[in-house]
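Record type: monomer structure entry
Structure origin: computed from sequence
Chain ID: A
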Amino acid sequence: MKKLLLIIAFVGGLGTLANAQTKVEKTPGQKAQHLTAKLQKELKLNVTQAKQVNAILLTQVTKVDSVKANKTQGDKKQHKAARKEILANTDQQISAILTADQKKAYIALKAAQKEKHKGHKEAAEKE
């Protein structure tokens, strides 16, 4: 009886772990919409700005996904440079759409994201 309960618990645990590893990948449209909604909330974008930002982000997400799909082990630096270039271009295009107050808030948001990323990176290096 104890063995049976142990086996059931083990199989149930494996099932839970298997489900935890499954990650549903969002489509480029979903990713762009999520990012647009976040920027619209943080920067108080109007409807026209939101549509323009969504189009820019959709292009960015599609390009970044393409770079990730073509990734090979030897070209790690080249892919990182390509992603940086895509993100810089996106930032430039988004900044052109924003008002002066929104640009300040956008710069602050980017700085906060950079700090958050830096904190995660440092924590990962300690482990």
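Annotation 1: Residues 34 and 56 are 13 Å apart (CA to CA).
Annotation 2: The mean pLDDT is 82.
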